[in-house]
Amino acid sequence: MEDRVAEALARIERLDPALCAFIEVWDAEARERARTVDGRLPLAGLPFAVKGPSGIRSYAAGRLIEAGAVPVGSTAVPGPGTYWQTWGQGRHGRTVNPYRADRTPGGSSAGSAVAVAAGMVPLATGSDGAGSVRIPAAWCGVFGLKTTNGLLPSPDRTGLASAGVLARSAAEARAYLRCVLDTYEAPRPVFPVPAVFSPDLGYARPDPEVAAVVRAAVDRLVAAGVVRLDPARRPFTLLDPREAWTAIRGGGQETEARKAGVRASGVRASGVRASGVRASGVRAENDRRLDALFARTSLLLTPVTPNRPHGHEGPGELYSTALTWAFNLSGHPAASIPAGFTADGCPVGLQLVAARGADASLPEIALAAPPPAPRARPGRRVPATPAPPGAPATPWGPSPFRCGPRRCPP
């Protein structure tokens, strides 16, 4: 147990000056906690990171500690006085994407995604109000899960943000759910899982290469017998949720949307508006469509973002939340799994959306998925170091930590 934490701290010391994933590292405290943790606990000795300066006070962090996990530091979020487009400000500077240092890792759970992608920790907490777990998970090539809104305590008074996790594998995310939920029933998905695929939800404009990578990932799921696509006569669509999201978040003002981290490539800022439908009507209509969808199928598949990671200069007049924030409004759980890479070495994510409360099914489906296609050619990447002993070789490898059938202590 002490070795696992020591390895994590060593990797942070070695890699973080280049990646800038951490705000603080709690070296002495982590080593002492690892030395004294009860080895019978299900996550005994698991090093993990928390999102932002207040992350250690979150409900999820407390439950992970009760289960024996060891917090090693807090991860970068956009800092005071920095442009939101940098997506993270660590103790050593601007947070960078571990696959392409000239690109953003996404946000606002920027540091958590980078810390996991670089192997500094196998798991990190996050929060997701418009895609803030799923987008950095997609752009850093790791597993990310946004839980059903209201399932776990959240300080967000608007009800849009929910707790989430970023992990090297879906197995770690499953262990997270076992320990943070008061009750956890292990689902047994019947494969192939009935699913519907929508490349754009009817209003987004995906980058053609991103769309092709995601479509190939969906085809692999079908070929592997993980999902069965519904031969719907009509494509599944929603109304563009941008106005509804901004209205709830901050009175519909663009400045509030920027503070919430919604600017990035994907849908032009002018938007595709649902003509004649007020923001509240958009939310109600999308809820109706999603309720009807999940009454007949188990899974909705989309790209996580319509675009690849943008540069640190910013996203311009485009949004990357086009395909994520609809599910913050509706409250559905959603996960990002690695889909593959664009030709210039940028990771792409496939989004899995399930019915409200069906959070535990998403890691199970992800664990059954075939691994993503390798990069077509390497991008400019921060030099890699070998993964710590026992770490999974791919995002779909087995977890090196026990999660077992037993529930974590209350």
What would your notes on this structure say?
The structure is a single chain. This protein has 410 residues and is an alpha/beta fold. It is built from 12 helices and 15 strands. The strands form 3 sheets. Strands 1-3-2-6-8-7-14-15-12-9-10 form an 11-stranded mixed β-sheet, sandwiched between helices. Helix 6 (170-180) packs antiparallel against helix 12 (361-368) and helix 8 (242-250) packs across helix 10. The longest helix has 18 residues, at 2-19.
Order of helices and strands: HEHEHEEEHEHEEHEHEHHEHEEHEEH
Uncertain stretches of 5 or more adjacent residues: 252-277, 376-410
Distance between the termini: 22 Å
What's the rounded overall pLDDT mean?
86
What percent strand? Answer: 15-25%
Biggest beta sheet summary: 11 strands, mixed
Tell me the number of helical segments per DSSP (H or I, 4 or more residues long): 12
Name the assembly state: single chain
How many E strands?
15
- Rg calc: 19 Å
> What shape does the CA trace take?
globular
The chain-level structural class is: alpha/beta
Q: Please list the strands of the largest sheet in the order they lie side by side.
A: 1-3-2-6-8-7-14-15-12-9-10
Please estimate the helix content.
25-40%
